[in-house]
Amino acid sequence: MSPEADPSNYDSTLRNSAHGPFWDWDEKTRLDDINRYRAEFSKDSPPNLNSAYWVTEEHSELLTDEVSERSDDAD
């Protein structure tokens, strides 16, 4: 909000630059699931979503090479 950052103030050394867009994949997953849920109901009677909430969890790939097998010779 400083006048020094005003882009029309060519004497100033301050500049703003935009970066993005960025995606919040967790929020996208949540909103996609809400849309899927709403689509299951007719448009004439959408479900009352008061107090409803969605949570998301992140899943990583399971690496099969890291799975260790138990050996009977370990005694």
Could you outline the blueprint of secondary structure elements for this entry?
Layout lengths: L24 H15 L36
Structure description:
The protein is mainly α and 75 residues long. 20% of the residues lie in helices and 0% in strands. It is built from 1 helix and no strands. It has one helix spanning 25-39. It starts with 24 loop residues before the first helix and ends in a 36-residue tail after the last helix. The model is unreliable at 66-75 (pLDDT under 50).
How is this structure best summarized?
The protein has one helix at about 25-40. By secondary structure, the protein is mainly α.
Quick one: overall form? Answer: elongated
Distinct helical segment count: 1
Whole-number mean pLDDT:
76
Low-confidence stretches: 66-75
Class by SSE composition: mainly alpha
Evaluate the radius of gyration: 26 Å
How are helices and strands ordered from N to C? H
Q: Measure the end-to-end span.
A: 71 Å
In total, the number of strands is 0
The amount of beta strand, in percent, is: under 5%
Largest sheet: none
Helix content: 10-25%
